[in-house]
Each structure stands twice: as structure tokens, then as C-alpha cells.
């Protein structure tokens, strides 16, 4: 029996999603709130509550200001420069953007917020004032831009992403806006993501903390700070962007590079072990799931875009209130609702298209000392080595041209796995970063470091 693919959601799931955003809008006292869920790269649900003061009901094509979600777009542009060989993430910023006054701060440290820069620019508060007040980088950075030693700790920095925007312009030779449009928005079809609002869009509001009254918030052009928080977008566009961040798109950035972005760049802040930061994306553990994405806020707006790659799900929540709703929490709840009600179907098992006899001969059990491991062949021509019982060190490995494999994850990431053969060509053992894996545990005559006791295995007497 063949089970066909089904992209829609069950009515009961849709009702639970609507209830969650309705609760968020009412309890968060937001004039309006839009939610959307994407599964396997395709938007499968969207809903909204509330409206603007005139009563217009928003939808998945209504623009909201998304604040710091902008940083993820900026990070993608930097990663493109790296992949093109125009810079290295370990390069000092000064190599490409001289005279900033931040010393040997690296590109990677700026991406991961470990450069030690101040969180904000000097007064007045940049989010509610025009960018024309900060026409130069010196106006953004202030007299003492570094608060911490670079590379030592995570310290979120809006000014760091201003520097990255200027870096993109210096290396690419076009404005940040031009690079954004040509290299991300157009290839991914994000036609409703813009620097300035394009109707239909929501008005940003401040909601009085002690009364059901609202006050319009300003919509400033942030100038040099734009790469840190300028963008307007929609639930539909952000669902498409989240799908790209999960799987990559060779027109923009490879799957390997977006996976690199989703890897923690620095240790989490002490006491905050359920949160972290990669290269332009936030990381979060909630409800036993790993989420990747970003939150955003500017006066009048809060936003959240979060995905669970393991579940193949992403959710976006946008609201037009300065405070109140918690879009990150709500978005992760939308993912959880779908994941629990309609778990992801596993991919059908299929035999490998081709099996190398020499590689197949390596499959099966191996022993590191008395620890039992299994070696599996993977569909991409690589192998996976993992313990067969208890906890232990396991990794996936990618084949290299010289016949070895390089570790992709876990303890052995970057380490080299190679087959060591005897003079007659038979396999002696596997060497993994000096660890020896043999076909039998401590077999006499095997290449076990330190040798094997001549008496062999024995009982208690």
C-alpha cells in the first residue's frame, strides 16, 4: 500500500493553532497578531487575530516590522562572501574595513556576538530616532566601542551588525540594500520583504500598560543601523526564508553553510543553558526540541521566526505592539502543536543505488578497547560510526578523494578516519585520530596500542 503525501493540516490541529494565537493576541494585548506554520518548506497554515485601529484584518501578506530578524539576512550575505573566497570568518574586520577602531575583532566574532562590542550605539536611542543622527560608523560605535575582551563571552551587539553591513558594502562594492535584494530577496522570491513599508502593512502601536489605550510609534529609517533591524516582512515571506535556513538553496547559500550558521558559535551565558547563538541565528531548547531562528522587536512591533529542523517545521508570529506578546514562545508552541498532533513521517527505506564491495566489507561491528561500535554505510557514500550500547562518541563521516573520511559532527568533527591495511592488503584496523578500532576486542596480534597480554582472556581462576 502506498501512502501519498499530504501537506494540509487536520481540522483539530488548525483549531489548536488558532486558539494559541488568539490567546497570545488577547493576553498580550496586541492590536493584531499573525501566525503561520510551514511544513517541509511549504506554508500549511496561517491565521490572524485583531486588526488595525480602522478594523482591517491582517493576513500572511501583511507587512510587519521584524527588527532583529534582519540580522539573519545580513549574516547570510556575509556567509556568501566567505563561500566565494572574498573573506574568511577568522579575518580581522580591519583587513576589509579599516579604521573602525575595534582592533583585531574577527568577522566570526561579529556574527556570533562575541566581539565584545557594546549592545547599543550612544544616545539618543537608535530605534526611535532617525539614522541621520548617526551618519558615520564613529557615531554608531562611540568613543569606547569594546566592553569585553573579544572572543571570551556572548554579548549581544546591534552595533556589531552595523559593522557587518558596512563590511558587506566594502567587499561587495554595492550598498547593503542592493546586495540584500539581488542576492537573497529576488532568488528566494521574497517580494514582500522591504526596507520601508509597502501596503498592506500594519501600524506599530504602544499599548498603555494600565489602560486599553494605544499610541502610534514612529517608523524611523535606521540609516547605518539598518543591517541590525530595518526590515519589514510578512508571515509568508518569513516562512519561505525559514525553509531556506533549514535546507539551503544553492542559488543563495548551500545546505552545508546554513547548517554551519545553525551551530553554536560561543558557549551560552552562564545560567542560560537553553539558549545560544550561531552565526546570525539564535538557538533555543524548549519542550525537548532544538529550535533555530531569531526574534525581533522595534518600537511598535515584535516578531519571531523559529524552526525545528528535526520536525521539518517552522513557525512565524508577528504582532504590532511594542511589548506584550511573546512571539518566540508562541512560535515554538505552534511548532510543538503540529509536531505532537501530526508527527513527521519517516522517509521511506530504500536500498542504496550502488554498493562498493570494499566499503561493504567495512560495515558491521568494531571495537575500541572493549567498547562496541557499529559502522554503517550512508546513502551519500559516507559512513557513520556510533556506539551500540550506552553513551559514547559517534559521528557521521564524509568520504574524501584520498580514501579517508572526515568527521562531520559530534566528538569526531573534523577528525580523519582511515583504513589501515596489512602488507597482504587485508584490513588491520581503523584509525580515528590515533584511536584504534579492531574487529575483535583485544585480539592477540592486532594493532592494539600497548599490546595485548599474551595470556589472553581468562576467568577468575
From TrEMBL:
Start and end residues of each Beta-lactamase-related domain: 21-339
EC number(s) recorded for this UniProt protein: 3.-.-.-
EC main group: hydrolase
Keywords: Hydrolase
Keyword Lipid metabolism: no
Domain DUF7586 as annotated: residue spans: 356-439
One function term, GO molecular function aspect: hydrolase activity
Keyword DNA repair applies: no
Domain of life the protein comes from: Bacteria
Pfam families: Beta-lactamase, DUF7586
Protein name, as recorded: Serine hydrolase domain-containing protein
